Amino acid sequence: MKVSKLKLIYSLLFLGLTLLASCSKDDDEGPVPLPGISSFSPESGVAGGEITITGENFSTIVSENIVKFNGVTASVNTASATSLTVVVPEGATSGKITVTVNGQTTTSTDDFTLLSIMQIVTGNNHTLILKSDHTLWGCGQNEKGQLGDGTTTNVMTPKQLMEGVKAVAAGYYHTLILKEDNTLWGTGDNTIGQLGDGTTTNRSTPVQLMEGVKAVATGYYHTLVLKEDNTLWTVGLNGGRLGDGTSTNRSTPKQIMKGVKAMAGGGGHTMILKEDNTLWATGYNKFGQLGDGTTTNVTTPKQIMGGVKAVAMGNNHTMILKEDNTLWTTGYNAYGQLGDGTTTIRNTPTQIMESVKAITTGSNHALILKEDNTLWAAGSNEYGQLGIGSTNNFHRTPFQIMEGIKAMAGGGANTLILKEDNTLWATGYNAYGQLGDGTTTNKSAFVQITLPDVK
After folding, report:
1. 333 with 320: CB under 8 angstroms?
2. How far apart are CA 307 and CA 309, in angstroms?
3. How far apart are the first and last CA of the chain?
4. d(CA 289, CA 268)
5. What does the alpha-carbon distance between residue 69 and residue 202 come to, in Å, rounded to a whole number?
6. E runs forming strands in 202-292
7. From CA 128, how far away is CA 181, in angstroms rounded?
8. Rounded distance, CA 352 to CA 105, Å?
9. What is the pLDDT of residues 47-92, one digit of tens each?
10. To bridge 173 with a disulfide, which of 79, 144, 179, 362 should be the other Cys (CB 3.0-4.6 Å)?
């Protein structure tokens, strides 16, 4: 009897310990926490673009986070408990974002907006529009074959030119096209070798120029190519803008610098942003557009300043966006395009604004996108390129033009903008149909441009 009672006591004790261990284990693991999305940035974008989702209770293991854009699964690049970076998937549409972790799903409060347009670019008198399906569209002047449609006929409404395009750049009369396979193609004026195909023959159909290209930019008559190894190559009209130490024109690209992040070309000068965020300049400097404190031309890149985020250039002026989002300008200023309230030419960058998100230029006007997505402008308005409903000659101080702007581009004397609602608008000089509204009538106020639906 005593033995049986002892066995019973041991059995009950064992059972109690087992239950205690089980309860402790459950308490340690606890219920699976529900993930949460507090915000995502940017709030709009194109397929293939990257966004950051901020929230809580994400998995630190990338594969354990399932992210969908309106039901379409996205690739997750990096993950922490409070942040995910993801790539907007092909086939995504505007709508909610969901994150699923360990079977628990959370949905964003706000909608993500899928943009139908990836990039807008303007040459002197031609316009290029890259849609999110990677088709390239163009309109405007085509006398040199710069639209690449096999003709030299001007086009007054956007026309599809090519498929499989990743990025595009436009010079005065030439166009450079970066395809998805990282091959570079060129079309249009080539009288100075600016296409880089080893000839000076104009092209009306794009010809392949290089492989392994990461980015491309143009000046008026020269071309800047950033390869995948971050080397910078230049070709075309020189006079110092090619940065090769000479003034000799080139029809074949030549490497001039390593460790390059971005670049921009103006009428006669080149600005180079290196990976360490230092800004370098070369070329024509009569009006101080290089910002080195002189008006002496340069044939080899020289360092101008540090802490730079982006740069944009007009004919003879330069706009510099620093890492603290302040905007600085230098160079020619007869139309007030430096935005400093004067028409004084400057050879050293002067700060003119804060809280700036992006910049671009026309030949003699400046376009500024602020952090609140308002568009501001300064400079020449002779043809209505500022879009204010008049053709007052110029404005020396930036003033607000419009709200809700996603992107903008400046041409010779015209302006193109993409609004947050995916609509495209244009204003200014239109003699060649570059505004894309089906006419050749100049506009002093923005008109909406209609594009065919994305495939």
Report:
1. no
2. 7
3. 86
4. 9
5. 44
6. 203-210, 213-218, 222-227, 232-236, 250-257, 260-265, 269-274, 279-283
7. 20
8. 46
9. 888 999 999 999 999 999 999 999 999 999 999 999 999 999 988 8
10. 144
